[in-house]
Amino acid sequence: MATYSPPEQKAAQRILGRIEGERKQVESASQLQNFPEMVLGISAYQWQKDVLEALNPKESRVAMKAANGSGKTSVVAASAVLWHMVRFPESLVVTTAGGMEAGRGAVVA
Fold first, then answer.
1. Using one digit for the tens of pLDDT, what is the confidence trace for 5-47?
2. Fewer Cβ within 10 Å of end Cβ, the chain: N or C?
3. Which of 36, 39, 45 is nearest to 77 (CA)?
4. How far apart are CA 98 and CA 102, in angstroms?
5. Cα(11)–Cα(23) distance, rounded to whole angstroms?
6. Are 32 and 56 spatial neighbours (Cβ–Cβ below 8 Å)?
7. Model pLDDT, residue 108
C-alpha cells in the first residue's frame, strides 16, 4: 500500500535535499586540499594535495622538500595563502623568501 505525501511535504523534502547537497559542497570547498581545483582552477599533483591537507588542521606544522620548479610556491604556498585570506578575511598572512629576488612576485595577492 502506497503512502500519500502532500505536495508541500514533497517540496520541503526536495529543498532539504538541495540544502544538504550545497552544505556538502561548501564543506568540501572549505578544505584547503580542494582549494586549488575548486576555487583557482589549478590541477594539483597528489603530493601537493597531501601537503595542503596536512596544513588544514589548526596550528599544523609541515616541512616540505621538493625540487626546484615543482610547484612549492606557485601551487602549495599560493593556495595556502589565498585560502587563508578567503577563510579568515580579517587575518594577516606573512610570507618569507630566501632572498629578495626569490620572493619578488612569487606570491602576489
1. 677 888 888 888 888 777 777 777 778 999 999 888 999 999 9
2. N
3. 36
4. 6
5. 18
6. yes
7. 53
Rounded Cα–Cα distance for residues 48 and 69 (Å) = 13
In this predicted model, what pLDDT tens digit does every residue of 44-53 receive, in sequence order?
999 999 999 9
> pTM above the 0.85 mark?
no
Q: Which amino acid is at 81?
A: V
State the amino acid at position 51 in one-letter form: V
CB 51 within 8 A of CB 77: no
Looking at residue 30, the DSSP 8-state letter turns out to be T
Q: Label each residue of 78-97 as H, E or C.
A: HHHHHHHHHHCCCCCCCCCC
The ranges assigned to domains in the chain are 32-103
